[in-house]
Amino acid sequence: MSSPADPVSAQRPYYVVLLHYPIVNRNGKLVTTAVTNMDIHDIARSSRTYGAKGYFLVTPIEDQHELVERILAHWRSDHSRQYHPDRVEAVSLVRMARSFDEVKAAIRAECGEDPEVVLTDARPSPNAVSYADYRRELSDSGLTKPVAICFGTGWGVSDVFYPEVHRILAPVYGPEGAPREGIPYRGYNHLSVRAAVGIILDRLFGL
Ligand SMILES: C[S@@+](CC[C@H](N)C(=O)[O-])C[C@H]1O[C@@H](n2cnc3c(N)ncnc32)[C@H](O)[C@@H]1O
Q1: pLDDT tens digits for 71-130?
Q2: What is the residue with the minimal CA distance to atom 7 of ligand 1?
Q3: Among 37, 99, 103, 174, which has the highest number of CB atoms less than 10 A from its own CB?
């Protein structure tokens, strides 16, 4: 785990990605979720605090783009710049994308190569990488490949997204730890996406 003597080098540019498609709903059906105002601000602030190069909101729905653009226009106004400069700075990281292909294209244009795609999930996966190990990988100064850390909405990211994914991060657990057979209620770890972003960025990039 991190310590003040173990800073993460800034060698690898990384981006936070919040997917509103492809997502599953409570019945396991493939859906597109709605963008929420809180997710725009709160995740932008965590992204700024932990040094992300950008924060992508991915939705194919045109109305949602217009809505978010209206909100962002508010934060670009002179009034906001004067009275909420911290929030304006964070929100300036927000980018809209219609698909994950658009996210990859934007990162490729900025960094010269496609990102390593890292998925976060509350459910355990046999091939998941631990935070300590991935933090070490990120601080390897020999590597410059950009990273896209992806978060879900609704009931989580659909497995139709899996072909995009290179790494899956281990789930975050509290003191109950992972679920264990025969022990009811053990392993509750259903965080809001905003809490999950804060915790995961702190584990990977925090001092
Ligand atoms: C399933 S969505 C829930 C969105 C919901 N509408 C909300 O914010 O309350 C939460 C997302 O946060 C991340 N997440 C939540 N809990 C997590 C955990 N324990 N470990 C890792 N990631 C987690 C995953 O990216 C997941 O897709």
Answers
A1: 998 888 888 788 888 888 999 999 999 999 999 999 999 999 999 999 999 999 999 999
A2: 192
A3: 103
Whether residue 4 is contained in a domain is answered as no
Ligand 1 mutation target, pool 16, 46, 121, 189, most atoms within 8 A of CB: 121
Percentage of the residues of the chain whose pLDDT score is greater than 70: 94
Cα–Cα distance between 154 and 163 in angstroms, integer? 20
- Give the Å distance between the CA of 79 and the centre of ligand 1: 34
Average of pLDDT values for 15-40?
97
CATH code at position 37: 3.40.1280.10
State the Cα–Cα distance between residues 134 and 152, nearest whole angstrom. 20
The whole-angstrom separation of Cα 127 and Cα 139 is: 21
Q: State the chain's mean pLDDT as an integer.
A: 92
**Helices marked H in 50-185 — which ranges?**
62-75, 78-83, 85-91, 100-111, 131-138
